[in-house]
Amino acid sequence: MKKQLAVASCVVLAGLFSSLVQAKSVLTVYTALEADQVKDYQEAFEKANPDIEIRWVRDSTGVITAKLLSEKNHPQADAIWGLAATSLMILDQQGMLQAYSPKGVEKLSPQFVDKAKPPKWTGMDVWAAAICFNTVEAAKKHLPKPESWADLAKPIYKDQIVMPHPASSGTGYLDVSAWLQMMGDKQGWAYMDKLHGNIAQYVHSGSKPCKMAAAGEYPIGISFEYRGAQLKEKGAPIDLIYPKEGLGWDLEATAIIKGTKNLDAAKKLADFSVSLDAMKRYEQNYAVLAMPGVAKQNPFIPVDYAQRLSKNNFGWAAKNRDAILKEWSRRYESKAAPKE
Asked: Where is the signal peptide (predicted)?
């Protein structure tokens, strides 16, 4: 009987040990990645790291940034995978990011990596402004095809444009930030005052204006290039316009939250985020990547796309974000779409 009990005990202990060995680390990852990207990225990471399971917390850039800041004293996230570099700079200013140099980071273009040694964040890809122009709806309304940001302020486009709300959307903020940097403070706000007269709604997503234009809800959507290229490839009657003054842009990037209890797993995520495998997946969505030599030419994005990006002072955009958004809301909040 004692022998049977001993054997049974060994079996139970072996089972418990096996369960402990097989137990996965659950990594809470905050992201502003598009919803149709996260599944592919997660599957690739978990295949490479079968002992780690990602639990996503996903929302638009402004919402995720605000959530992280509100949790500063009691962090809930372990890592961030896919958030604007300007947002990560704000978090870094608050002392919220863990310095770490991912394996293989030296293969990335230096301008897409935080200058700190070791870096607080590492870049993934660039996304930039573009105008989605529904040729069918525009023809019905006798609207000319715009070629510049200045064109969008012309009275003929009154109530025909949708754009992202800059407090909710990273795409919206990169537009506003770029206009202020390109035109200067006084002229930038004057331009947005005129543009406001032509805006039908400020929506709470960077991709939604292009989706709305593609569906014919409005003839013009200020959005970003990859979503426009994707919709056009699927047959949407839209032209993609890259305004001649220059394109506002930002970097999607990865970082580790300081104080995470899953630091080893978070480091593995950071390692994967800069890997060739990850870059090949980013390439399916973006034309400019942090790792040179991986991106392929998209037929709907100009060959000289990278040269069309405006001069962007990320530090300035991060430092002045709160003041810019406060002034923007004071002027234009009346046309904000209801939050879903």
From this structure: 1-23
CA dist., res. 59 & res. 16, Å (int)? 38
Pick among 3.40.50.1820, 1.10.260.40, 2.60.120.260, 3.40.190.10: CATH of 127-249+305-335: 3.40.190.10
The answer to whether 21-126+250-289 and 127-249+305-335 have equal CATH topology is: yes
pLDDT value at residue 84: 97
pLDDT in tens, 40-90: 999 999 999 999 999 999 999 999 999 999 999 999 999 999 999 999 999
**Is the CB of residue 25 less than 8 Å from the CB of residue 63?**
no
The Cβ of residue 281 has, within 10 Å, a number of other Cβ atoms equal to 19
- How many whole angstroms separate alpha carbon 255 and alpha carbon 122? 7
- Got the DSSP string for 59-127? --HHHHHHHHHHTTTS---SEEEEEEHHHHHHHHHTT-EE----TTGGGS-GGGB-SSSS-SEEEEEEE
Q: Where are the domains of the chain?
A: 21-126+250-289, 127-249+305-335
Tally Cβ neighbours within 10 Å of residue 217: 16
The residue among 25, 44, 80 whose CA lies nearest residue 252 is 80
pLDDT at residue 340, as a whole number: 73
The CATH code of domain 21-126+250-289 reads 3.40.190.10
Ramachandran region, residue 142 (left: φ > 0; alpha: ψ -120 to 50; beta: rest): left
pLDDT digits (tens, 9 = 90+) for 262-300: 999 999 999 999 999 999 999 998 989 999 999 998 999
Closest CA to 256 of 111, 63, 83, 23: 83
Residue 287: both structure tokens together = 């034309």
First and final C-alpha spacing in the chain: 65
Q: Is 157 annotated as a binding residue?
A: no
Distance (Å, whole) CA 72 – CA 65: 11
Residue 82: what are its φ and ψ, rounded to 5°?
100, 70
Check residue 16 and give its pLDDT. Answer: 42
Counting residues of the chain whose pLDDT is more than 90, the rounded percentage is 90
